[in-house]
Write a structure and sequence with these properties.
By secondary structure, the protein is of the alpha+beta class. It is 29% helix and 23% strand. A five-stranded mixed beta sheet has the order 1-9-14-13-12, sandwiched between helices. It has a five-stranded mixed beta sheet with strand order 2-8-7-5-6, sandwiched between helices.
Length: 331
């Protein structure tokens, strides 16, 4: 869907927990043979938190993004938390990020845009409309996920896949003549896939104070093969709705930043005629970092020089729900 909304990323930041977790540790935890994880998921290592919190990681990434944008925290007009998991049920994690940035008395509005792994991409779409309307000028979008706390050793495929990370961007309206913009944006949700990827606990339905509470309801569950089957059935139509012809090739897209869902999920991108060397990957060293995956991978592409100013970039992925979404933007 063509939107052509001027939007410029003027700062990027990333925070990775200090603890590096090798596959050998996961294989011991889950009772797997040596080499199983890399063969199955393509992950060599991932980061897990020690004492870091989601809001702390978001704030660390935000500080780097603000420094690059040459802005002070109090020059922000809006803070958007775009994470797949919250730090706690209440209050909203956006307010915790604001507080971590020393803005607790500022009154700067803070909110969450939550579509699990697609939260960052959805937040970019929301932010672009806020900026286009003139309501806000400088918006921080921060994604942080502590997925390690919810892994289930009984489900080694997902337990060995996830990592913890945070990434942030500062966006604003570009100056006249600057080509930065979101050209295309599109999102779809198929609720028939709602129970393919879940953490059943954490809400009012399976509250821990209820009799018979099962602690495994608080752990991550994913039916990976069913998710892939569903995505295969909707991906071509979705991509052509996002940008006609995208399911058959890259068109004028220079770089693709996909959600690092899984090794098989990334291999599926070859079906669309997209050039492997144009796809940014971080799954080998970071794993699947939920909502932080796309912005953390975008950060990597920019810092490595693979994404340059003026490049047309596709951000695309899927999330629990089952949701699929994407943006095409000029960086």
């Amino acid at each position: 869907m063509q939107v052509n909304i001027p939007l410029k990323i003027i700062g990027l930041g990333r925070y990775l927990p200090k603890r590096v977790v090798p596959n050998s540790e996961i294989e011991e935890l889950c009772g797997l043979s040596a080499g199983w994880v890399e063969r199955r998921n393509g992950v060599r290592e991932r980061r897990w938190v020690t004492d870091e919190t989601s809001s702390f990681m978001s704030a660390e990434a935000a500080r780097e993004a603000l420094d690059e944008a040459k802005l002070k925290p109090d020059q922000l007009d809006l803070i958007i938390n775009a994470s797949g998991t919250g730090e706690q049920a209440i209050p909203d994690t956006g307010s915790l990020i604001q507080r971590q940035l020393g803005l607790g008395k500022s009154g700067i509005p803070a909110m969450t845009v939550h579509t699990t792994c697609l939260s960052f991409v959805a937040a970019m779409d929301v932010a672009s409309n806020f900026i286009h309307s003139g309501r806000y000028k400088n918006i921080l979008i921060a994604s942080a996920d502590v997925a390690s706390c919810g892994i289930n050793p009984k489900e080694p495929e997902s337990a060995s896949l996830v990592g913890d990370a945070a990434a942030a961007v500062v966006v604003t309206r570009p100056e006249a003549g600057d080509p930065s913009m979101i050209h295309h944006a599109h999102f779809k949700t198929y609720g028939d896939g709602a129970y393919l990827t879940t953490i059943m606990g954490g809400g009012s339905r399976f509250h821990p104070r209820f009799a018979g509470h099962n602690p495994e309801d608080d752990l991550f569950h994913m039916d990976g093969p069913a998710v892939l089957r569903m995505v295969r059935g909707i991906a071509h139509e979705f991509l052509d709705e996002l940008y006609p012809g995208l399911s058959q090739g890259m068109l004028d897209v220079d770089v693709i930043v996909p959600h690092q869902a899984s090794k098989v999920g990334l291999m599926m991108l070859e079906r669309f005629g997209w050039k492997e060397q144009k796809i940014i990957r971080t799954i080998e060293t970071l794993g699947n970092c939920v909502a932080a995956s796309i912005p953390a991978t975008l950060y990597q592409g920019v810092r490595d020089g693979r994404i340059q100013r003026g490049d047309k970039v596709l951000l695309v992925g899927t999330g629990a729900g089952l949701s699929i979404g994407g943006l095409v933007l000029t960086f």
